[in-house]
Amino acid sequence: MAMTGVLRPGHAQIRVLDMEESVKFYTEVMGLVETGRDSSGRVYFKTRQERDHNSVVLRKSDRAGIDLFAFKVLDKATLEDLDQKLQAHGVKTERIPAGEMLETGERVRFQLPTGHTIELYAEKKDVGNGHGYVDPEVEVIEYKGISPIRMDHCLIYGGNIDGNLELFEKVLGFTLVERVKLEDGQTDLATWLTCSTKAHDIAMVRHGEDGKLHHVSFQLESWEQVLRAADIMSRNRVSIDIGPTRHGITQGTTIYFFDPSGNRLEVFCGGYDHYPDMHPITWSWEEVGRGIFYHDRKLNDAFLSVVT
Amino acid sequence: MAMTGVLRPGHAQIRVLDMEESVKFYTEVMGLVETGRDSSGRVYFKTRQERDHNSVVLRKSDRAGIDLFAFKVLDKATLEDLDQKLQAHGVKTERIPAGEMLETGERVRFQLPTGHTIELYAEKKDVGNGHGYVDPEVEVIEYKGISPIRMDHCLIYGGNIDGNLELFEKVLGFTLVERVKLEDGQTDLATWLTCSTKAHDIAMVRHGEDGKLHHVSFQLESWEQVLRAADIMSRNRVSIDIGPTRHGITQGTTIYFFDPSGNRLEVFCGGYDHYPDMHPITWSWEEVGRGIFYHDRKLNDAFLSVVT
Amino acid sequence: MAMTGVLRPGHAQIRVLDMEESVKFYTEVMGLVETGRDSSGRVYFKTRQERDHNSVVLRKSDRAGIDLFAFKVLDKATLEDLDQKLQAHGVKTERIPAGEMLETGERVRFQLPTGHTIELYAEKKDVGNGHGYVDPEVEVIEYKGISPIRMDHCLIYGGNIDGNLELFEKVLGFTLVERVKLEDGQTDLATWLTCSTKAHDIAMVRHGEDGKLHHVSFQLESWEQVLRAADIMSRNRVSIDIGPTRHGITQGTTIYFFDPSGNRLEVFCGGYDHYPDMHPITWSWEEVGRGIFYHDRKLNDAFLSVVT
Amino acid sequence: MAMTGVLRPGHAQIRVLDMEESVKFYTEVMGLVETGRDSSGRVYFKTRQERDHNSVVLRKSDRAGIDLFAFKVLDKATLEDLDQKLQAHGVKTERIPAGEMLETGERVRFQLPTGHTIELYAEKKDVGNGHGYVDPEVEVIEYKGISPIRMDHCLIYGGNIDGNLELFEKVLGFTLVERVKLEDGQTDLATWLTCSTKAHDIAMVRHGEDGKLHHVSFQLESWEQVLRAADIMSRNRVSIDIGPTRHGITQGTTIYFFDPSGNRLEVFCGGYDHYPDMHPITWSWEEVGRGIFYHDRKLNDAFLSVVT
Lengths: 308, 308, 308, 308
Fold this sequence. Notes:
Oligomer: homotetramer
CATH architecture of the largest domain in chain A: Roll
Largest interface: A-B, 53 and 53 residues
Structural class of chain A: alpha/beta
Number of domains of chain A: 2
Distance between the termini of chain A: 38 Å
CATH topology of the largest domain in chain A: 2,3-Dihydroxybiphenyl 1,2-Dioxygenase, domain 1
Helix content of chain A: 10-25%
Number of strands of chain A: 17
Largest sheet of chain A: 9 strands, mixed
Number of helices of chain A: 5
CATH superfamily of the largest domain in chain A: 2,3-Dihydroxybiphenyl 1,2-Dioxygenase, domain 1
Order of helices and strands of chain A: EHEEEEHEEEEHEEEEHEEEEH
CATH class of the largest domain in chain A: Alpha Beta
């Protein structure tokens, strides 16, 4: 099988300060669909086009940020295999039983060298995208909110991103797509990695504090949908960090903005396909501004400092 | 590694009746870049954004059609492994030495049950896309012709598409993405398969004659680029089969048109991502018109009959 | 004042066979807003972005077609002036009192040489577009249906289009934008006229029978909205005549389709601006196919024959 | 005639510091076509789609800024009539003989109350857009540079914008489309005016110094072309002021950027149509940020201070 191992980002569990306000935001502004609530008070969402039961899980807390980010793997055998490989790499893993998260099978949980909690799982109930598997219709945007295609990737901040890179490449089979070097031309400031042919399934930036979230990202259909998203944000007075603009890195178009708890989110479109026979693209410290924001050609103040 | 085995379509060798006229068409109308000519008279092209040396090879002949369609695999070990698996499956394979095709390594060649020649290879020279791997710029369309992103897939016509499906799934690790059933609800009229997360890397339609080409397809950036392509075709009096329109199957937008030799080509944009944990979508005979052409909701006369 | 006299198309009264089915179509598929019903059973609609009370009026009848097409003029003085000019030109006019049509002032009604009923009026209640005139928001498509910007123009079929041209140019101050010549190179097959800077506010085709409607047209924001409209039509099994495609004439992109009574409608986007210092564009008979449908480069069977 | 009097912006004469560098910028980055040079050293340009000989004229100077902005009027009788009306309004006018500017007829020149030089003229040679008036093709972007549709409008800064408004409305027949009020709710900070159905043919902001230019603006086809323009700017290291973004005022999408002399230019797309029967939209001081930049919802530092 040409597409094996880790398939794609599956779910992100995000901490929010006010659940009612957050549910309103993730449904009416983001256009996600609420799919359930569990006994611990977590609220589950998926995009309209996703088939699996959930991709965003909100948990009420007194500080914003990300609890965990999970990847779906091909099957249960793959899950077992990756668990063993993680342990062989010296990573301590934990099993979270099926059902702890709604409609989700057993998960293998572990910590990244940057302190983030990552999970792998093989099973999540296919609740469908409303079109079925027989003679489907084309999806049309005829409803409230941004309505992204899918929860697509995240960017995390922490110290030991070299350790992360080694783990993702050697153990989980990810490929390095792009990297930014610091002034010394040697040390990575940031790396973008994929487990498929996307320009990124996860990315990370070197940072003084571990376990931090820069943003969770959602994919849009077109640059025109990026404009529609910005218009919806302004109509709803959502705090926009930057955009619409384009990244030099990945070449996607983008808006960074904040949920009501201050978690940064992204909607983006485009970006090239990366295959493992290609070389990674390297950005020098001098050009990092153009790499991150291709049109402004400089970092805004918030990019390297505001995380949750 | 999450992306293994067969990576993607690599090159299509297409027969043309008049080389000079064809070179003009593939450069000035299609916007491809000529990358070389070999001693046998074949002319090689790539898109501006492709990095490997060639993806389209034209060979002069007295009848149009496709000589062969090739896939790039991860590495030489994969090539050896797949060769053995093909033979174990009862497929006779042949080795084409490195250099027979410009800047291309050794190829494993075999026949599909539908009589088409398929090749696998691990090496083709990375001649770059003009942007390099360090601090690249974003590609901008500032030149003549359609300028697709890449040669993306093909649709072939032949008898034993069941045999093809078995070979692609069991031996080459492809996944079935969509299928159309005949009136009996059992027999496949057509199948769409992927070796990655694309909605299709190759597709096939059941047909009375073996070895036929329906179309070779090129990917565009956006629906607006589909319009631009149609405008360029009309300005150049290119024969358009159908479009701009949308496929129900894969949900991509599309134009079918003909090169000067009568080979059907496609430019398309979009289509959802397919992962191997998803079910294939099935189209009933009654809805095949909407499946193929979502807006017209009926096949045009040429779709099932005009092949080269 | 640089923009004087006749301003723009104001309302079209269209005959439908089944009012309930038609109201459902014009609201849920077209995305128009119902603004009222009068004592004679007519139902009034506007687009979401139009400010005047109505632009489409449906009347139940046993045959489809158009009762009348109306233009808004600058003010009451202009209405009086144009009435006198029409009479001086030998055109018999009739006054329809204010209130005969909901929220609409007095109308001057007359017959074109092609037998169509045209109206002029100066007053229609500004009921707003939901955004007001103070600190408005940007309109975002977050609801069901195609949701065009405005009712934009119509194309009528009849015999004496030369008489129409003279009347629109000499009496009503329209400008000829484009024309198609018959085989003789002299006679107009069709003409496109504007009272503003649009590529057309009304168009007409020479035809054996008077008083016929080819289509009423609605403007969309972008080519992507044209695709969305086609998708909505297919999801609702609306009969599409042709499209999405582009006109050579006016250069707009377009879909022709039919309401449940068989009246042809159009949604379109784009088209250049015409100013009265420019020359009209002339199409020869040999190139009329490309002029009407730029991508197909031939008329479809329905274009010259199917009218209501 | 429904479209009379002043038709549209015709030409802007812009001062540049280095002619060679400027010609390179306006051709290779802006994608304008050089149409001539006169004996005084001025260089003339038009867009590819404009038919009249020139719309941008560059003059070498030791300070940047705008020499004059001109409007084309319907015909010579209109020119005479407007000259008399200007004089009757107390405005001193001057005649610039035909030929002083290449391929341009006699001009009526006068000063606005804000100190800007405005010209009216009726004749400029139609050199065509390369498509002719018979059986034309659709324009396709297949060449270097941004390639706007037309020079569209300008925004000027000066003291007595109330005097400007009176002159444009009462003498030249313009209509007020939008206005921004200062904190007092009474005084205009800025006004947008049209002589056609565009959201603006000229705009003005109250400012301490007379005769200043904020920007000259060029129209693009689509939001995707706005992105292409931003990409071209970054590839060419053009200084971008802000964008891509959207204006709340006029609702157009936009990029502000600078030519090599520091003159601000704009490329924009969209904006609604305004007819003289509509009311002007008023923005309060509290919402001016959202009015100018709909997504950022605040003015950037440069908007009110950087002019040439």
